[in-house]
Design goal:
Elements: H1 2-9, H2 21-37, E1 42-43, E2 46-47, H3 48-59, E3 76-78, E4 90-92, H4 116-130, E5 135-138, H5 145-154, E6 161-167, H6 174-182, E7 186-189, E8 192-194, E9 200-206, H7 220-231, E10 233-235, E11 242-245, E12 248-254, H8 265-268, E13 272-275, H9 281-295, H10 301-304, H11 307-320, H12 336-340, H13 347-358, H14 377-380
Parallel strand pairs: 5-12, 5-13, 6-9, 8-11, 9-12
Antiparallel strand pairs: 1-2, 3-4, 7-8, 10-11
Helix pairs in contact: 1-2, 1-4, 4-5, 6-7, 9-11
Amino acid sequence: MICRILEGLLTPENCPPGSEKEVYEAYFQFACVWGIGGGFSSDKGADFRKQFDAYWRNDYAKASLKFPEEGSVFDYFIDPSTKKGEPKRCAHWRDIIPAYKHDRAALYQTILVPTMDTTRIGYIANMMLKLKKPVMLVGNAGSAKTVLLAGLLRELDEDAWMYYNINFNSMTEAVDTQFMLESPLEKKTGSIFGPPGTKRLIYFVDDLNMPTPDKYGTQSAIALLRQQIDYGGFYDLKKLTMKKLENVFYVGAMNPTAGSFFIIDRMQRHFATFACPFPQAEVLTTIYLSVLAGHLANFVPELSRMAAPIINATIALHAEVPHPFRPTPSAHLTPPLLYRTLRHPSPHHLLSPWTRFRCLTPSCRPPSSSTTSGTCASSRR
């Protein structure tokens, strides 16, 4: 994967002919950081990116590219404005985060609020797409991996590219996958198939690791994808002749805490894999406040001013609720439930989501003769 990143970085603009060796070393460092450490995330309290940051700063302290002490090595990229002959310097990813523009007509599941994580992962993923290299984003539910990839695909030149979404589930098998792969294709010559015209086709396979393994441990849907990548096609189920697919490649997303948790190495090796960490509390506040403030912008000031208090309270409550419980799937506790409730906002509707949240706290008690409203102790406080 280091070589793939270098292929995208070592351009005539970044490394003009006659550049010093320190220039190539700087880009090699950046490629190593993301090629080796880009797949690291945190799990059960262990922050592997933080450990990699400490290792890199300790073992490569004398390298030509000096990372600032603030933050980690993942927080910086090579400043493209560095002139020829000057030593390469680092710039922070937060300096190039795009501004969020709220679209009231957009579906909730398509909204992406730019953050530092989406900016840096999007930069490298977009580089891989331009090189026609398969990309995979791995992260828990809510890490924006699907929305990020979908946004990158929508920005491609429609005259040269097209994409096709495939969603795997626990029941997906090879025969289902083959039907979906063949759907957007047209016959070219003989046994060769491809996208219409001269376009290139990108298959976006979401939840790639979801198919249930058979008794031999094989996921037939993934095995078929691997066969197409390795051998260029698969067999016609009726004629039993080889079908060749041209001008196609893949991007994927998967949740390592769901499905079979991983995919076979012979398939994984084809992808440039990057981890999408779940946003921290302050990032979540920025994301949801941007969405809710944009949604309430056209309402009366009394209502729009409630955006910040609602978001702050919701994030704080979301962080507190799971603590007394055992680790279990907590999709029903995610903040997006609040905003899906806001169909016709009014002070009454804005308070109704709290009725759901307050009863999830440990101090909640069933209504009795002494409590007419059934409000839990935590919400009264």
